[in-house]
């Protein structure tokens, strides 16, 4: 008797009582069974499942577009559909925003939607062509996507967008609206910074970087850093120069602004420091509590109410030292404990504020169990929005919405089913790419696409904007773009 298999049998018998282990064992058995499937069958199954997955994704996009159209995310008091997708579906904000864009574009692009519903267009191709899709060129884009690979489609879309008139895609307002800085933490413990800024501003930044970039040479340790490494060092030097600036707002912890809150029995008012009372606004009790929940405060003592100065205002006789409601060590403890906004699904790190579960104005204390780290949006919802938060006996935080719903602390992921995907009943031919190996003729493809797109003269548009549209430009409007007679399918690729 071969005893080498006995431990394995006993191990299987032990773990079979665990549902999770049993599921894993079933999956391993199914994978092992694939070893006996002929290669031709494996290839057909891959193409069939690819088509079924594309068809299933189309159904998902249709549901998402309808959910957002009916503002379904508002029932959970989320501030956007992207926030709901990050919370309920576990997507990062960038991916959620892109999928939401595709979902809404599919709702108004029937030709693209039909091909994806049939499993013939993958999400990668749909994501690319929906960036430039419009009724005039939708049919051409579908034919190009069906005839080529995703790499071909991406090249066509990139070339099309580069050739667009400046007033459509590269205007100053659009460039300014797209400014952003993204931070990505890499597995090797480095950090990648991606900055998107308008072209003119980028030239200034690059000039500063080049000014601080060291000349090429050999370091004392024998290393010869490349241009990219020396530019990275220059960016670090720029940061050091900024921190060493003389601006006291950069070199001290002084707040960038201060709002004065006047409280009394009759009314509460707030105005900005240095405005001399020009912008005085009334605030509600909830707003006043939020402002006092986590802020620096000073006590201002006025003179006798019956004795005003020459301007008819009460005289200020004393101002106390500024102190923080939640001071340094306690603040650091809360930040280290919570790290991000504690509302389920939020995870915001920017503009974090500390909320009192039981407000100090109602007898609450600054004990750490009474403090909670939240973002600015949810801090507003907890005070002005009617939300309620309390700590349960096991230490978890429960958030209750005004409609009585309670946000679940942890989400239960629904179980997927392969049968639901297989039910789309696509065939292997639907999942196969129709590219025959021929070369993409990018110039002809772009010319064909633009022949199907209404022409906008960028020079005429720029001239009118400069003259406020009061007159026509001095040159005649005789630019005529002919219509191409060949279809993209027959001209986009050539042997």
Structure description:
The chain contains 22 helices and 16 strands. The protein has 495 residues and is α+β, with helices and mostly antiparallel strands. Among the domains are: 77 residues, no CATH class; 136 residues, no CATH class. Strands 3-4-5 form a 3-stranded antiparallel beta sheet, with no helix packed on it. Strands 12-13-14 form a 3-stranded antiparallel beta sheet, with no helix packed on it. A two-stranded antiparallel sheet has the order 1-2. A hairpin with a 5-residue loop joins strand 12 and strand 13.
Concise summary:
This protein is α+β, with helices and mostly antiparallel strands. The chain contains 22 helices and 16 strands.
Structure keywords:
disordered N terminus, 16 strands, alpha+beta, three-stranded antiparallel sheet, 22 helices, single chain, globular, about 500 residues
Distance between the termini: 65 Å
Instruction: Provide a count of the helices.
Output: 22
Strand segment count: 16
List the strand order in the largest sheet: 3-4-5
Question: Radius of gyration, Cα only, in angstroms?
Answer: 31 Å
In percent terms, what proportion of residues is strand? 5-15%
| Structural class estimated from helices and strands | alpha+beta
In this structure, how is the largest beta sheet organized? Answer: 3 strands, antiparallel
Low-confidence stretches are 1-16, 246-257, 271-281, 478-491
Overall geometry: globular
- The level of helicity is 40-55%
Mean pLDDT: 74
